[in-house]
Amino acid sequence: MDAAVSGAAATPTASDAPADGSAAAVQGEGSAAQAAPSRYESQKRRDWNTFLQYLRNHKPPLTLARCSGAHVIEFLKYLDQFGKTKVHISGCPYFGHPNPPAPCACPLKQAWGSLDALIGRLRAAFEENGGRPESNPFATRAVRIYLREVREAQAKARGIPYEKKKRKRTTTTITAATVSTVTSSSSINPTNVAGVSVPSDATTATPNVSTATTSTSV
After folding, report:
1. What are the boundaries of the region Disordered (predicted)?
2. Which of 48, 52, 88, 207 counts the highest number of beta carbons within 10 A?
């Protein structure tokens, strides 16, 4: 009888099992959520692997240490064959037309916005993988000039100007009239009926003693 009771006490009940299982499931979901990379990080990793594969397939093969801004520009031009943006050539009748009425034989290229975002991700990935900021090939002046030329050329060809976003700055303007008003207000010392100076906030709240005395005597 005692053995049966002790055995029953040692065996967990059915109500205890789901609680432990649910706690483990919640903990597992939390760790999985923390381990899952963001969309930006996943895209950055894919871009980095694509660039490394490009270096390996280069003729002759290139190492990351020997990569320069010129090689980065070659990589961007290589990606144009996978682009989906119609860029009209100068001889096309739809050159500079934002909404061409008919198709044309102009090539498809990578949009400037896509290339600019790609360079930003690769610039960050280079330093995250041990590269020094001063030797970052994605941050060279040649790459910046190339991106600017692509932006201007595509803006003319597509008739869609790219406007650089300007940061809004909040400025406080103090006019001369405001300054003079404040100066005049501070220089005036309010007085009561008897000619005694009192604080401006106490003019109506506090009666003047001299005034009360004069009124009594009259």
Report:
1. 1-41, 183-218
2. 88
